[in-house]
Amino acid sequence: MLGEKWTGYWFVLPGTIMLAVILGFPAVTAILESVGLVGGKGGASLANYTRLLGDTQFHATTWNTLVFVVAVVTFHLVMGLAVALLLNLDVPGRWVFRVLAILPWTMPDVIGGLVFRSLFDTLTGGVNAVGMMLGLMQEPKDWLGSPSWALFSVIMAESWRGYPYVMLILLAGLQSIPRDQYEAAAIDGAGWWTSLFHVTLPNLKPMIVIALVLDIVWECRLFGMIYGMTGGGPGDATQNLSLMVYKQYFQFFDTAYASSVAVVLAAVLLVVALPYMRSTLRKEA
Does this model's pTM top 0.90? Predict the structure, then answer.
């Protein structure tokens, strides 16, 4: 209708409208509600954000989220890189190992939470049974009922379920590294470790940044695994910000306060995502 140069825009217009309605409308509504412009009775106000500053539960939840994300993302990076290096080896039937390695990621996080809840059960859980059988434990441990162990248990569960995501990104990066760089390093007498630090990791740096940013965003938003495994308990020992938003919305019906927590979380994730966005825009330019 308006010439060939507009054809592409017409094709993406339906998807853009859909994203604006599904994502944009709730986001704008949450921002307006957090400052009292939607559903508020006293007009615009920053009272909800002021309340966050003095809310000890919000402080504890933020700390839980920080500890959880740092621990899980670190495990994902180490495990993902190790498995990616192994799967990148030229061995017969390596596709079988790739399928096995990606299986944890195919499990929905809610289902994963329920499965690990049964595995960490004090009386019937497999973790206690195996630990006692191997002599690592003298008596069953209350993994999910103890505040000191519950967060550790959730971290271990999510580390196993989510590492294939990072592994796939790094494996794609490994396969794009030219073979002649390794051949040149071998001619110079470089061993496996030298090649890893001077050939593999420098070439993987962009993919590592992408994997870290996307994984941090994903783990900050994680809900199903924690909800299915502990529900945020005992107390608030495993509650993260996403779960706090859910509880404020649907259990306490304090929608304005929940919106303020969601807006703060979204703002933090936007800052975290900036390196990825800059990298993507630089490539397109």
Answer: no
